[in-house]
User: What shape does this take?
Amino acid sequence: MTMYADRPSSSPLVDRWGGDEGVSWIAHPHEEGQRASHAIRGDDGVWIVDPLEAPDVHDAISELGTVTGVAVLSSWHARDAGAFARRYDVPVFLPTWMTRVEDRVDAPIERYERTLGESGIHVSLSNPLPTWREGIAYRESDGTLLVPESLGTAAPFLVGDERLGLELSRRLRPPRASLAGLEPERVLVGHGPPIYENATPALREALATARRRFPRALVEHGPDSVRSVLEAARR
Assistant: This one.
């Protein structure tokens, strides 16, 4: 199975959530990495996060309202952000500390400190590795948590009966400082489908058992984790 597909998407998995509050899609449901993208409606319009191009996605986005901006929350998630920004004539929004992405998008860049426009989405820095800078985003008003890399629901993130798991190296150093005390109603991730039910218990279990389950995760997903990092670094 391919970790990250290069061919154009033909049959994305599109999932609407929160009534008309947002939409998530996996452009290539059959790739092992299951890269996920999101569009979130805020008071100031629609924010598209870490997007990959896919058929029918723009129809789903248009149902949410007018697009305000495209946000990239991981230094490895430039993806199709530039193409989306040009389509909607909006900037690509990057935190002031985000590296690598600006060189990989052909669109205007707008930097921000902590809050994504007037969306109520607050972004905090997680910096696991020098080349891996990640924005963990949370909107307290509706309990929407978005973690693009450290957490995932795709198979390479999970062991046993986990619903939500950590990227292999993050099991040794979970991002507790960014996630402690949060009580999300939903967890959106950069790899795999969102979690809508019992999201807070799933998050707490993932953090509490991360280290204990590391040996099993290493045996089951070690080679795939290395392959994922190498492929992401080339993009």
The two ends are 18 Å apart (CA to CA). The CA atoms of residues 91 and 108 lie 5 Å apart. The first helix runs from residue 57 to 62.
